[in-house]
Specification:
alpha/beta, six-stranded mixed sheet, three-stranded antiparallel sheet, 9 helices, globular
Length: 257
């Protein structure tokens, strides 16, 4: 087995008195997609930010390409691409100008003109980024994350704001990226996306790791924690997750006529 690109052991992170992440451990191998799931505030983003070198853990170890990403961020970023859910760009910069700027950061950048075409942005290349739709900006952020031909790709809500056709096309593209040996660490609330792409799942709740393993293993995990009379065999990963996840409180809208 190839050496893991990401190795996280007993990760812990606190914000003041709040223990945001507690004893989280996982790996990501070359050509593997790991999806991090859980409700808001479960520690997903905090855990991934430690992998990205944006936060320094309070305890535990994080290694990316065998390096500490906090101490060796420059070396790690040469081999890692990051796509964030929200990204701010200069107000007047055009799509092609942003692509040219990012290409200049790398010794061997990907062909951004080809990526523009593949992501359906060719006709938008001369448009200011501020005039792109939310879905178009999302596709651009994915393009920029791929610019450095990364060995590790970290993505946050891959297809937020994308229409169903583009989502399906994007999933197919990421299957191809995975087959080329790139490791992918993704955070997603879209369980259909996780079901379509992920080899393994990391399930967090209130900063704690409750499950790490395959999709089939996750089904068995949920089955063991749902009362037998409420267990529903089969179904989508989202329906499975909803049997396990705490019910949302205070979100019922009543009295509308």
């Amino acid at each position: 087995m190839a050496k893991a690109i990401v190795q996280v052991e007993n990760l812990g992170l606190t914000y003041g008195k709040i223990r945001a992440v507690q004893e989280v451990s996982f790996t990501v191998e070359p050509g593997e997609i790991l999806a991090v799931i859980g409700e808001n505030g479960s520690g997903k983003t905090s855990s991934v930010e430690c992998v990205e070198g944006l936060r320094r853990p309070d305890n535990g170890t994080v290694r990316v390409f065998g390096l500490d990403p906090w101490q060796h961020r420059r070396e790690v970023y040469r081999r890692m691409g990051v796509q964030l859910q929200e990204t701010a760009y200069p107000s007047k910069i055009k799509v092609e100008e942003q692509c040219e700027l990012f290409a200049s950061f790398y010794d061997r950048p990907a062909d951004w003109r080809l990526l523009l075409s593949q992501l359906g942005l060719e006709e938008k290349r001369k448009r200011p980024i501020s005039r792109l739709s939310g879905g178009e900006r999302q596709r651009l952020s994915i393009l920029l994350a791929l610019m450095g031909r990364p060995e590790l790709l970290v993505i946050d809500e891959l297809t937020t704001g994308l229409d169903p056709q583009v989502r399906q096309s994007m999933w197919a593209s990421f299957e191809n990226i995975r087959e080329s040996g790139v490791a992918i660490l993704m955070v997603s609330h879209y369980l259909d996306e996780v079901e379509a792409l992920a080899d393994k799942i990391l399930y967090l709740e209130k900063g704690r790791q409750l499950f790490y393993g395959t999709q089939q293993g996750f089904r068995e995990y949920v089955k063991g924690r749902v009362p037998e009379e409420k267990w529903q065999e089969g179904g989508t990963l989202e329906k499975l997750y909803l049997q396990l996840a705490p019910k949302a409180k205070g979100l019922t809208i009543e009295g509308i006529v």
